[in-house]
Amino acid sequence: MDPVTSGILIVTALFVLMAIGTPIAFALGGVSLAALVMDRGVSELTYFGETFFGSLASFGFVAIPMFILMGAAVASSPTGRDLYRSLDLWLGKVPGGLAISNIGACSIFAALSGSSPATSAAIGKLGIPEMRKRGYPDGVAAGCIAAGGTLGILIPPSVTMIVYGISTETSIGRLFIAGALPGIMLALLFMAWTLIACKLAGGYDTPSPVADAARELKDTVAKNVETNMKALVRVLPFLVVVSGILFALYGGVATPSEAAGAGAFLCLALAIVVYRMWQVKPLTTIMRDALRESVMIMLIIACAEIFAYALSSLFITQTVAEAIAALEVNRWVLMGIINVFLLVAGFFLPPVAVIVMTAPILLPIILAANFDPYWFAVILTINLEIGLITPPVGLNLFIIKGIAPDIALKDILLGSLPYALCMVLGIVLLCFFPGIATWLPDLIMESAG
Asked: The TRAP C4-dicarboxylate transport system permease DctM subunit domain covers which part of the protein (predicted)?
């Protein structure tokens, strides 16, 4: 069977398995195993096991469960609540200020947790009921949280950036820096759209209980400041830890695995000390959530590696790469084709699976077209962010639906779509001004060197 026909059959089988509810890791592994056995016989089972366990043998993968544990410690503590209350007090008087403060809280929480689902869940549990209480339309309330949550895979430290770095053998520290300014840019674009949407709808100025309490205590303004400062003081140690981790990575003081281990320990210790989480139950919950997500990601990575091995063994990867390279088109047209491919892949697959399966194939093409690999990592990540708030998978959409089951999924989707367009605008801006992603890494790495 020729490589093109084999590739079509394998991809079709993969999507059929996922469509009937097969977990992604098992779908990838099952299709790969079937293709290898049919092509090379039962003896290929030996290589299957070696590839499966060998793909996880990299010491760099230690950083993934450690960063996940760090995020789980933050997500299981009331850090999101404190962020939300603090930003609400500062931005509550701006038209649409509550929605803007939710996006700000998502941005900061994304840096603390590194997880899009955790960010959407932690901020959404507080923000969505409060916004609806103040008269915000369901679409605005759900959409801004769903979109803000996507920042978790771009703003450092990011698990997906770690996976990209290991898959493409690029510097994880440089990838983290490359995602910083684009992450801030997207957050500002989200805030700008939210402000415009709220102004068009007449603004939402219904005071919150926190604001009411502050007004009733005008004679003791210090209490308002004290409430604000208490929330900020509780969050500040976590921000210091994240800043320290990034400094250690950028300054070459520690490897990603070492920095992740130290960050996980410190965030867990802070959750225990600051929020008095001494009981066994919350600590068990943190460990359980971290273990569950780590195993899921590791399984996807291992099975995606087997999938890539199968494609390569059947010469499917080489055929596709040659076909793309043979396209005698402008490099920006090539980048447009790659963006469409990534966008469609993000509609159906989680970010980690897309990165592990496609990054090693696309990187040589990107380098041949004279694109910066770190700039491309940001472009890739934003495409995958769009997939988090668009069907049919749209993980963040279903997380929001779980938080607010009485909001129609259609309203959540319609509220999220303008933010997806903001991300498309972000990709366009990065294409016109690549320095948004490359300037800061060049500056910091050159000064560090």
From this structure: 12-436
What does the alpha-carbon distance between residue 243 and residue 162 come to, in Å, rounded to a whole number?
17
Question: Cα–Cα distance between 158 and 167 in angstroms, integer?
Answer: 14
Q: What CA–CA distances, in Å, run from 159 to 196, 237, 288, 302? A: 32, 21, 18, 16
Res 151 pLDDT > 80: yes
**Residue given tokens 């084709």 in the structure block:** 337
How far lies 16's CA from each of 11, 297, 379, in Å? 9, 21, 28
Reported as a pLDDT band with limits 50, 70 and 90, residue 346 is confident
**Residue linked to tokens 């030996």:** 46
> For the chain, how long is the longest CA-to-CA vector?
82
Average pLDDT (290-312) is 82
- Measured CA to CA, the distance from residue 268 to residue 73 in angstroms comes to 5
Q: What are phi and psi of 199, to 5 degrees?
A: -65, -40
Backbone φ and ψ for 197, nearest 5 degrees, come out as: -60, -40
SS3 of residue 405 by DSSP: coil
Torsion sign across C-alpha atoms 121, 126, 132, 137: negative
Dihedral (Cα; 79, 83, 89, 92), 10-degree rounding: -130
Summarize pLDDT for 14-26 with one digit per residue, the tens.
888 877 878 878 8
Q: What is the signed CA dihedral for 32, 36, 42, 43, rounded to 10 degrees?
A: -110
Helices 351-368 and 24-40 pack at an angle, to 10 degrees, of 60
pLDDT tens for residues 224-272? 556 556 666 777 787 788 788 877 776 667 877 888 888 888 888 888 8
418-427 pLDDT, tens per residue?
A: 999 999 999 9
pLDDT at 305 over 70: yes
> What is the predicted pLDDT for the residue at 447?
61
DSSP 118-165: HHHHHHHHHHHHHHHHTT--HHHHHHHHHHHHHGGGTSSS-HHHHHHH
- Nearest-angstrom CA–CA distance, 87 and 105: 7
CB within 8 Å of 429: residues ≥ 6 apart: 185, 436
C-alpha angle with apex 309: 307 to 310, nearest 5 degrees? 65
Q: Are 69 and 293 in contact (CB under 8 A)?
A: no
How many residues in total does the chain contain? 449
N-term to C-term CA, the chain: 52
**Entry pTM:** 0.79
Per-residue model confidence as pLDDT tens digits over 108-131: 887 777 777 778 877 887 788 878
